[in-house]
């Protein structure tokens, strides 16, 4: 169900017994193409989406940050004292909020008073749409605006990664936070994950629609094989660096990979590198075809990306493969898993006139094979985190 300002205001008043003063939104993101490259020095092509995380905010006179999430109602109101910042022991959504506050305070940004914050999102949790990064950037944007801290979007993105890496133990790259912080409508973000330089690529889909397909198989990065895939890549890189002058796997050209492939005899190192090198080339090709408005080729690149993730990097799994293979059967332009894999979501590029039939057909195939239903979301590209209403 769509989140509205009226809904946020009503929920805030019921929870805190006062009226909110400001309202905010931070999008989620999908990665169009370029998976598992953000820690291999490659290019990625994400975009911010119209699904995301909302907040209603009211000022307090004391040092307490009181935070409530409609999505985790059983947790009640979390309370964070700015004068005694200690991360709560429990592993839940409040840790993201408190960690973001603590990062900004440690950087010397003054937070003069507390806030009441009600959070409500329409992103499915643990789905690969970056609900955690959306929450981090939402909190960062609220603090930046409410206390006039004048922090640039790129810095808020880096702060979000600090939260993930240093406070929550997830060895993630920068893509999610950058894609959200720098989001623009009808644009994808071509991000060089090595240099963090970026450019916008037109995302004009015309009579096609991005459909997000949720396996409803949650994934937890810290508890999945994500860190093992990173370890495989690091091991392969060390072997190759003894013979080739490269800093990251994505520095390797296809010709160099062919020349030095005999060094990677320990399974599954060769296939891991094959994915990184070929996927990086697909991202650069995707930039070209989107600039040319060639959606047909872009769709084929999506398909090729999934094949590589399924067979070489082995991060899709039965649920994602079932959705994507079912999507391919519908005569659409392309489909692939998005995010880290091991569950979560896939995306499909579908003609608008076909959307209803596509959802029905793919949903039926998935239900029959997996014994549970998939959820489908129609998504548009969106601008980054922002104040959406005052007063």
Written overview of the protein:
39% of the residues lie in helices and 22% in strands. With 391 residues, the protein is of the alpha+beta class. It has 2 domains: 5-36 and 47-184 and 382-390, Ribosomal Protein S5, domain 2, CATH 3.30.230; 208-379, GHMP kinase, C-terminal domain (Alpha-Beta Plaits, 2-Layer Sandwich). Strands 1, 2, 3, 4, 5, 6, 7 and 12 form an 8-stranded mixed β-sheet that branches. Strands 9-10-8-11 form a 4-stranded antiparallel β-sheet. Helix 2 (94-106) packs across helix 3, helix 3 packs across helix 5 and helix 10 packs antiparallel against helix 11 (355-370). This is Galactokinase. The record marks 29 as: Transition state stabilizer. The active site is at 176 (proton acceptor). GO terms for molecular function: galactokinase activity.
Query: What is the highest CATH level, the class of the largest domain?
Result: Alpha Beta
Number of domains: 2
CATH topology of the largest domain: Ribosomal Protein S5, domain 2
- Proportion of strand residues: 15-25%
Largest sheet: 8 strands, mixed
End-to-end C-alpha gap: 24 Å
Mean pLDDT: 93
- Total strands: the figure is 12
Q: What form results from the Cα inertia axes?
A: globular
Helical residue percent?
25-40%
* Number of discrete helical segments: 11
CATH architecture of the largest domain: 2-Layer Sandwich
Computed over alpha carbons, the radius of gyration is 21 Å
Structural class: alpha+beta
Low-confidence stretches: none
């Amino acid at each position: 169900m769509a989140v509205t300002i009226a809904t946020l205001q009503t929920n805030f008043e019921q929870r805190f017994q006062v009226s909110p003063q400001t309202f905010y939104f931070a999008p989620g993101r999908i990665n169009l193409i370029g998976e598992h490259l953000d820690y291999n020095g490659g290019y990625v092509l994400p975009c911010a989406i119209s699904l995301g995380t909302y907040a209603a905010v009211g000022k307090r006179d004391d040092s307490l940050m009181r935070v409530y999430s409609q999505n985790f109602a059983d947790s009640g109101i979390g309370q964070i004292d700015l004068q005694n910042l200690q991360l709560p022991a429990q592993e839940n959504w409040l840790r993201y909020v408190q960690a973001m506050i603590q990062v900004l305070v440690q950087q010397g940004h003054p937070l003069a008073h507390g806030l009441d914050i009600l959070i409500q999102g329409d992103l499915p949790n643990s789905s690969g749409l970056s609900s955690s990064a959306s929450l981090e950037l939402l909190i960062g944007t609220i603090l930046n605006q409410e206390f006039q801290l004048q922090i640039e979007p790129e810095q808020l993105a880096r702060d979000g990664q600090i939260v993930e890496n240093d406070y929550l133990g997830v060895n993630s790259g920068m893509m999610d936070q950058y894609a959200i912080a720098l989001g623009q409508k009808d644009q994808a973000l071509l991000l060089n994950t090595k240099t963090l330089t970026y450019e916008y690529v037109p995302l004009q889909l015309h009579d096609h629609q991005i459909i997000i397909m949720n396996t409803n198989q949650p994934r937890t990065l810290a508890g999945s094989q994500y860190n093992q895939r990173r370890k495989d890549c690091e091991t392969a890189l060390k072997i190759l660096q003894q013979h080739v002058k490269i800093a990251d796997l994505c520095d390797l050209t296809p010709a160099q990979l062919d020349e030095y492939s005999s060094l990677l005899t320990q399974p599954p190192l060769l296939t891991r590198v094959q994915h990184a090198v070929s996927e990086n080339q697909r991202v650069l090709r995707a930039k070209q075809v989107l600039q040319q408005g060639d959606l047909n080729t872009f769709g084929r690149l999506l398909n090729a990306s999934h094949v590589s993730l399924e067979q070489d990097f082995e991060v899709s799994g039965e649920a994602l493969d079932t959705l994507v293979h079912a999507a391919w059967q519908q005569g659409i332009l392309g489909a692939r898993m998005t995010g880290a894999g091991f569950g979560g979501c896939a995306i499909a590029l579908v003609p608008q006139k076909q959307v209803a039939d596509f959802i029905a057909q793919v949903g039926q195939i998935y239900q029959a094979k997996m014994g549970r239903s998939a959820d489908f979301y129609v998504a548009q590209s969106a601008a980054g985190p922002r104040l959406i209403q005052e007063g």
